[in-house]
Amino acid sequence: MKDSTPPLNASTYQFNDRTVEIETLENAPDFPCRKVSIAIKSSDASGCSPRCECNPQCICVTKR
Amino acid sequence: MHVDLPEDHFLIPSSMGYLLYAPLKGLLFLLSHQTARALALALTSRRSSELTPALKEIFDEISKPQQTRTSPVSPLDISPWSHLTLDLSSRCTLACVYCYAGQGGRDGADMSIDCAQHAIDLCISKISVYHSRDEQSGQFNLIFHGGSEPTTNWDLFVRVIAYAREEAEKHGLRLFISMSSNGFYSSRRASWIAKHVNNVSLSLDGFQIVQDAHRPTAKGGSSFRRVVQSAEVFHDSRSPAFSFGFRPTVTDFSVDMLPNIVAFFVDRFPGVGIAAEPVEEVGNCKNSGYVTPDPLKFAARFIEACTRFPDVNLIYSGFNGLGNLRQRFCSASEPQMAVLPSGAVTACYGYSLRDARLTGFVYGQYDHVRGRFIFDEDKMKWLRDLHVRSAGTCKDCFTRYHCAGDCPALRIAEEQNGVLMSNRKRCIINREIAKWFLIKEITYEGQHTSLEREHVSV
Fold it and tell me: What ipTM, to 2 d.p.?
């Protein structure tokens, strides 16, 4: 039953996104920076209180 | 070059460049290596005078105080009484290889009708107090869920629904009934459910080879045909008053088939939502050999399915859309009132109480002699604090308002056992899926009318 594929690179996963090391990379491609504003809505505002994956109400109310 | 960003501002390396993300401000930037370095230098020295106008603009956006929008995340003060979850039975008609409750037979106790009725009475009386003050709050949500199939004791199931309907009507409340179900019953019962329940989360793991491997009957037979028959009844019964969705569980065995499983649902049952979840290794998993899929593989297959079926409502609980920020993963921190067959009240019905880590979520008990519920107020206070801002380990993670710390039961258990963040499978999945949506958002041109787009040249 077990898959013989080795894990991708989960062991090197970094979880700190506020204290970040930016390496020196010569010849890294440069490009204009982009900005997107994301409309925020609280999940309650859409009529769905935040519930866990087990709760059926999440399936039909929450939209991706 | 080292960069320290303010709280709730994140810099995420990606194949496209650096994503600078401030979820509470609703801002996302895509930066090249060079611009990220220039910005990091300015942030570290707190000097922006040498930046180009466009980078200066980003610098100013980051430096601005957080309160640019009011209440960006879901409030924490919802009344827990509006939702009552009943776990009616300790028995089940299936013997799923990953069942968290360790089910596999018809032995075990059912909830007493007395206990169920008192739980309904209690919630309705509490909602009625709110309802008299606010017309909008007049809905009572009754949920059947837990470590069993709610229809196993059919008579009890029918009686409880009839009682809830009668009491809700008497108090002028709307009643919304939802349930999780294995769908393993006759088409007559499926039709009855479609008439009397508003929403069903149907546990069907996909096509036959997967369903029968994962979810055999208590006697070891095939469950596929009967469950699909129920799905057909539900699909034909869809109306404003009734909807249903699929809740496939994904294991190491089925993860590579996930895009095809979604294709199966889309083909056979168009328009139905799908909530795919990786299995948690508890209960029957310990002996069956079915384990949690590799997290990167699950994320990759989920993303593949999202790409193949962009119009399907395919969800995963650790990420529910870029604009949907939340402080709580689930209703355990309301705390919700979920009553087990024994009368114990728990904030988390997602796991069996055989799992020691869940005993901490029990905060009340039905007193069968006196006919009333008794609650532990201190425990309720502790539960209310189980939101993402109290999850210290999530403080520096860019998905903190998307997964809201993920399952609190799992997080607490992993923290207590010293499991490193890098080994938390759901965290890896949450981050990979969220990162993909961020990249998609900033590289995908147009079409989403809810977004304001602005490209700034450096």
Answer: 0.74
Round the CA-based radius of gyration of chain A to a whole number and report it.
20
B146 and B25 in one domain? no
The length of chain A is 64
Q: Where is average pLDDT lowest: B191-195, B306-310, B440-444?
A: B440-444
What is the rounded distance in angstroms from the CA atom of residue A56 to the CA atom of residue B331?
A: 13
Q: Which residues in chain A are closer than 8 Å to B277, comparing Cβ atoms? A: 53
pTM: 0.88
How far from each other are the two terminal CA atoms of chain B, in whole angstroms?
20
Using a CB-CB cut-off of 8 Å, the residues of chain A touching B24 are 40
User: Measured between CA atoms, how close is B369 to chain A, in angstroms?
Assistant: 31
| Nearest partner of B149 among B159, B157, B141, judged by Cα | B157
Burial class of residue B177 in the structure, from the number of CB atoms within 10 Å of its CB (0-12 exposed, 13-18 middle, 19+ buried): buried
Examine the domain organization and report whether B28 and B89 are in the same domain: no
CB contact under 8 A, B58 and A33: yes
Say if strands A19-21 and B2-4 run parallel, antiparallel, or are unpaired: antiparallel
What does DSSP assign to residue B94?
B
Q: How far is CA B430 from the centre of its chain?
A: 12
Average per-residue pLDDT in chain B?
A: 86
From the list B297, B299, B302, the residue with the least C-alpha distance to B259 is B302
- Residues A48 and B51: beta-carbon distance below 8 Å: no
Is the confidence at residue A47, as pLDDT, over 50?
A: no
Neighbours of B382 (CB within 10 A): 16
Same domain, B134 and B19: no
Does the beta carbon of B381 lie under 8 angstroms from any beta carbon of chain A?
Answer: no
Q: How many CB atoms lie within 10 A of CB B437?
A: 16
Domain boundary among B363, B381, B399: B381
- Give the whole-angstrom CA distance, residue B26 versus residue B9: 11
Q: What is the extent of the structural domain holding B36?
A: 1-72
Domain check: are B194 and B327 in the same one? yes
Q: Is residue B276 located within the same domain as residue B167?
A: yes
Q: Which residue has the tokens 């056979």?
A: B268
Q: Give the pLDDT confidence of B98-149 residue by residue, as tens digits.
A: 988 776 555 678 999 999 999 999 999 988 876 665 555 688 989 998 888 9
In-domain check, residue B438:
no
